[in-house]
Design a protein that fits this description.
Layout: H1 3-11, H2 15-42, H3 47-58
Length: about 70
């Protein structure tokens, strides 16, 4: 299915179905984000950020969350 076909199909949804579809898309995107973060973590692409955060904590450059 092309983007154009998908767009046309979405315009034909009822308000209720459109709301359900929008909810599904939001959940799908959130799951994809989680999957990408997990993949990046396993591949070591976040290691530098972790080291930087740990150094900030050790140096006292952080504060507790409220």
């Amino acid at each position: 299915m092309s983007i154009e076909e998908l767009e046309t199909a979405v315009t034909k949804l009822s308000s209720e179905d459109l709301a359900l579809f929008a909810e599904w898309v939001a959940e799908y995107r959130a799951n994809e984000w989680d999957r990408q973060i997990e993949e990046d973590a396993r591949a070591g692409r976040l290691d530098a950020l972790v080291r930087e955060a740990e150094a900030d904590i050790e140096a006292g450059r952080t504060r507790p969350l409220p």
